[in-house]
Amino acid sequence: MQPVDITAILPHRYPFLLVDRVIEVEVGKRIVALKNVTMNEPFFIGHFPNRPIMPGVLLCEAVVQAGGILARMTAPDPRHDGQIAMLATLDRVRFRQPVTPGDPVRLGVETIRRRGPFWKMRGAAVVDGKIAAELEFTVALETEQAREVSP
């Protein structure tokens, strides 16, 4: 799956779209995606200027985005058009090693269980066969609506 296909599923756009390619999908069960980390990432300006490291929270976000793709691909029913996968919980997060410019990060996610719109998942960000981050999380498929914000 190419970037144009990913943007048809995820509402994220640059600089917050953190999935570059989907490599494998077993609908409803698991997904493997890729994030190519480059020196041009906007967060490297301040994290950290002399030792660029991808922020852990963004590693988690990349894994969750892959999970969101899996959930949306599993529910292609027209009644689900306009739905987006919203992060509901983040659990058991562990960071094992830093991710730096030039690292290709494999994002692996598997479904633990599904109840209605809620998807409990387990995922990992892996660089050169070593786990950089691992986590469990829940996404909820929700209808994307324009919300009016009060001043």
Describe the fold and architecture.
This protein is an alpha+beta fold and 151 residues long. It has helices spanning 3-9, 56-74, and strands spanning 21-26, 30-36, 83-95, 104-115, 118-127, 130-143. The chain contains two helices and six strands; from the N terminus they run αββαββββ. It has a six-stranded antiparallel β-sheet, covered by helices on one side. A hairpin with a 3-residue loop joins strand 1 and strand 2. The longest helix has 19 residues, at 56-74. The relative contact order is 0.20.
Please trace the helix and strand order, writing H or E for each element: HEEHEEEE
The CA-CA distance between the termini, in Å, is 40 Å
Question: Given the structure, what is the number of helices?
Answer: 2
- As a percent range, the share of helical residues equals 10-25%
Q: Give the overall shape, derived from the CA principal axes.
A: globular
Biggest β-sheet, characterized? 6 strands, antiparallel
Coarse structural class: alpha+beta
Catalogue the unreliable spans: 146-150
Specify Rg, calculated over alpha carbons: 15 Å
Per DSSP E runs of 2 or more residues, the count of β-strands stands at: 6
Mean pLDDT comes to 90
